[in-house]
Structures are given as structure tokens and as C-alpha cells.
Amino acid sequence: MKFYLKIAHSAPSEEVKQHNGPAEYARIVFVVQHLFIKSGDAEPWEDLFEPLNSLSVYDLNQAILKGYVIKEAAAKCQK
User: Fold this and answer.
1) Tens digit of pLDDT per residue, the chain (79 long)?
2) Which among 14, 20, 23, 38 has most CB atoms closer than 10 A?
3) How far is 32 from 36, CA to CA, in rounded Å?
């Protein structure tokens, strides 16, 4: 999250404002990155994020919005 918040803070302020602040903007950037991975336009997640590779974009977005945590070596969301 810190990495994507850093991206949000370096983005143009108008763009961040359109997405209701840096946290929301960071979530959108993360989910869009996952969309590129799922479509084959980017390399799959590795290491800590590898369990995310099996999630759909919709499921990842809902997990973030609802505060779920992806457990290590598990491909399903846990609350």
C-alpha cells in the first residue's frame, strides 16, 4: 500500500481529487495493475503478492474495499 500511496502522492493533484483522495487513487492504481496482469499485459505477481494471481480483478477490488487480508500461500480472501 505504501508503494501505491507514494504513486498517488506524486500524481497530479487534480487526478487524485477526482478519485476521492490518495488512498482511493492508490486502490484504483493497484486494481488496474492487477487487470493488466490478468489480461497478460504484465508479468504475474511474485513473492508476497503471488497469491493474488488466482483472484479475479473484481474479487481483489472487493477484498480491498471490505478490508480482507490475503493470507500467505492462500489464494482466497480471509476477513
Assistant:
1) 778 888 888 888 887 788 888 888 888 899 999 999 999 999 999 988 888 899 999 999 998 888 876 555 444 444 4
2) 38
3) 6
| Coil/strand/helix, residue 73 | coil
Q: Are 5 and 22 in contact (CB under 8 A)?
A: yes
* CA distance linking residue 55 with residue 75, whole number of Å: 7
- Structural domain spans, the chain: 2-78
Q: Rounded to the nearest 5°, which phi and psi values hold at 7?
A: -60, -45
